[in-house]
Design goal:
The protein is 82% helix and 0% strand. It is built from 10 helices and no strands. It is globular. The N and C termini lie far apart (42 Å).
Length: 214
């Protein structure tokens, strides 16, 4: 039986998509193209912000709720530890991307790519751990009052946060995933958020991935 689709898995898919894009782009970028280097640094910064925001929501709301309903505290402690490891890896890559953005050199591009690949390993380990071990104990609580309360807290985002999030989440999304998203969030809400309040993402980030890399 295939795994239950969740909003969490949609977010994970967007994270994986951007990391893959960055690995490819850094391998193809022309030497000394400082403009392209700055664009890629900006795109990575957006990914880092979205992933950090996602994990802060888990740390603040989801893990405590699961602890309340009796989920193994060792598993939850591991999730928190993996978040910390990802934060450190993202910080390392952020520094590498910043250095690359200054020079645009082939050497710094290679160093940034190596950092992204290291971070990709750390991130993927956590995403898979969460999907394989954490989600099976979370999904049975989706209709519980405790989870409904968490959902309310997670959904209370100002348009300046929700707009860029939905623009990022839906960038290049498959029709299958769009269908699931529409079953979770009304299509008009997504459309308004991503097209009106997500304009900065559409203007400054999406074109980075659409541009030729060499």
């Amino acid at each position: 039986m295939p795994p239950t689709m969740t909003m969490n898995r949609l977010i994970h898919g967007a994270v994986r998509r951007d990391v893959d894009r960055l690995v490819v782009a850094l391998g193809e970028v022309a030497a000394n193209d400082v403009g392209r280097a700055r664009d890629l640094e900006r795109a990575f910064g957006n990914l880092r912000n979205e992933l950090t925001h996602h994990h802060e929501g888990e740390d603040r709301w989801i893990w405590p709720m699961l602890a309340q309903v009796g989920v193994d505290p060792v598993l939850l402690a591991t999730m928190e530890s993996e978040h910390q490891s990802m934060s450190a890896a993202l910080a390392e890559t952020s520094a590498a991307m910043a250095t690359f953005a200054v020079s645009g050199s082939a050497t710094e591009a290679a160093a940034a790519r190596e950092s992204v690949v290291r971070t990709q390993i750390v991130v993927e380990q956590h995403l898979r751990h969460e999907e394989e071990d954490l989600e099976p104990v979370l999904v049975p609580h989706f209709e519980s009052p405790e989870w409904k309360e968490v959902e309310k807290k997670l959904s209370r985002q100002p348009p300046r946060v929700a707009g860029p999030f939905f623009a990022w989440l839906t960038d290049g999304m498959s029709e299958k995933d769009r269908t699931f998203l529409r079953s979770t969030v009304p299509a008009p809400v997504v459309s308004i958020m991503k097209n009106v309040f997500g304009r900065r993402y559409n203007k400054d980030i999406a074109p980075v991935w659409q541009a030729k890399t060499s």
